[in-house]
Design a protein that fits this description.
CATH architecture of the largest domain: 3-Layer(aba) Sandwich
Order of helices and strands: EHEHHEEHEHEHEHEHHHHEHEEHEHHEHE
Number of strands: 14
CATH topology of the largest domain: Rossmann fold
Largest sheet: 8 strands, mixed
Number of domains: 2
Structural class: alpha/beta
Bound molecules: nicotinamide-adenine-dinucleotide
Strand order of the largest sheet: 3-2-1-4-5-6-7-8
């Protein structure tokens, strides 16, 4: 099929790069968002999200006239839906954005169009949720118009490159719909394009993130076992990984972000009777901040009257994204246990956690502290020189939740070092 025009619904981390990339590859694109502030901002050339290279890509696309933005869905050859899929309080998927986006497409849907859902979604969403809405048009999916699911697997920080280079899975409600999806994405994808059915494509995305979550959970459980049995989890993992078929991931204070800590719940909710392992892995990772709290209490005793410099808040190293971050949860637990917590997050220095104080610099955060607590392996925190830090603080206890600090170097600078998953006596 030949696509002249595409409408992308949702201009966030996924939709905006996708819309701009289509536009810079010869397709006329209308980007639609329900947030009027985003639409107005983009019309004025303002880009509301940070992603390396995105600003100039969007500006090129807008200036060429190939990309326009709107709050209304126009007619187009293809519609790409990239709206959020968060979860409710009870961990069930919140499909309200997907439903409203499909309803917005409905009046513009014409015979011969293609609709692609990209949002991470529970199994059968394309068939059982999106298809019936679009078929209210009187057109039949797979016959009168094409419908497909294509998961987005880009890594924040690398989105522009991975959008083009990653292998792309396209699942159609029919084989012809999958082929139509391939024709659309082939305009810019240089990676392999693999065709399958819609529900398989939905499962692929959920299985990828669930695999990561379960594997981190076992690493976290190993950290607890190592702690109990007086060994060093980092050393045991390193040695176990010398086995040719073992690849244990690293433990840490938990799992965060809006994908890995969310998507496994979509499978648990969709089939609770079949997912005890996935459910337990989620519980293990969600409870890991409590394990960190116990480690801190063991090192410092009663936390009332103690001051802790908490270093890092993001859900993973070297990003500014704090969504579902376990580091934030650790700080809540420390505050509730009576500690005074002084926070330093180099990527979001102003972020406020109730009960804690945020500091714009390391010097201020560590001043007057009783202990330093490394919660995120940001490069600049891993590379701290313990001798210099010793000159900034009276603290002589260092606690490392991410395996980021050399115990020898910190001991040499006069610190007692406690490390997550290390049950050997700290010195
Ligand atoms: N961000 C990532 O790294 C990433 C990676 C893989 C998959 N995903 C998935 O992609 C989807 C989108 O994620 P995101 O990070 O781009 O979200 P986002 O929150 O950054 O952006 C979504 C945008 O959709 C808009 N929106 C909501 N309802 C709409 C509607 N009916 N019509 C038009 N616009 C609407 C919102 O205003 C928002 O601007 C989610 O399902 C997410 O799980 C994200």
């Amino acid at each position: 099929m030949n696509f002249q025009s595409v409408c992308v619904l949702g201009l966030g981390y996924i939709g905006l790069p996708t819309a701009s990339t289509f536009a810079t590859h010869g397709i006329r694109v209308v980007g639609v968002d329900v947030n009027q502030g985003i639409v107005d901002g983009l019309r004025g050339g303002q880009i509301h999200i940070y992603e390396p290279g995105l600003r100039s890509l969007v500006q090129d696309a807008l200036q060429s006239g190939q990309l326009t933005v709107s709050s209304q869905v126009p007619e187009a050859d293809a519609f790409v839906i990239a709206v959020p899929t968060p979860f409710h309080e009870d961990k069930s998927a919140d499909l309200s954005y997907v439903i409203s986006a499909a309803e917005m497409v409905l009046p513009s849907l014409r015979r011969g169009n293609l609709v692609v859902l990209e949002s991470t979604s529970p199994p059968l969403t394309t068939l059982d949720v999106v298809r019936p809405i679009l078929e209210k048009s009187g057109l039949v999916a797979g016959e009168d118009f094409h419908l497909a699911y294509s998961p987005e697997r880009v890594l924040p920080g690398q989105i522009l490159r991975e959008l083009v280079e990653n292998t792309r899975i396209i699942g159609g409600v029919t084989e012809a719909s999958a082929r139509a999806g391939r024709d659309l994405y082939a305009t810019f994808v240089r990676g392999e394009i693999i065709l399958t059915d819609a529900t398989t494509a939905e499962m692929v995305k959920l299985m990828e993130n669930t695999y990561r979550d379960v594997n981190i959970a076992i690493a976290n459980e190993f950290s607890r076992l190592a702690d109990r049995f007086g060994v060093d989890v980092w050393e045991t993992i390193r040695l176990a990984n010398r086995h040719p078929r073992v690849k244990i991931l690293n433990p840490g204070p938990g799992v965060g972000g809006h994908c890995i800590s969310v998507d496994p719940w979509f499978l648990v909710q969709a089939a609770p009777d079949l997912t005890p392992l996935i459910h337990t892995a989620r519980d293990v990772n969600d409870s890991q901040p409590r394990f960190v709290l116990r480690m801190v209490q063991r090192g410092l005793g009663n936390l009332h009257g103690k001051t802790i410099a908490a270093l890092g808040l993001a859900y993973k190293p070297d990003v500014d994204d704090l969504r579902e971050s376990p580091a934030v949860e650790v700080i809540h637990l420390l505050v509730n246990a009576g500690a005074t917590v002084q926070v330093f997050e180099p990527f979001k220095p102003d972020f406020v956690i109730p009960g804690a104080t945020s500091h714009p610099s390391l010097d201020e955060a560590v001043a007057g502290a009783d202990a330093l607590l490394l919660l995120v392996g940001h490069q600049q925190l891993r590379e701290l020189d313990p001798a210099s830090v010793a000159g900034l603080t009276s603290a002589r206890i260092a606690m490392d939740c991410v395996g980021g600090w050399s115990p020898q170097a910190w001991r040499a600078a006069g610190f007692t070092i406690h490390r997550l998953g290390v049950g050997k006596d700290p010195r």
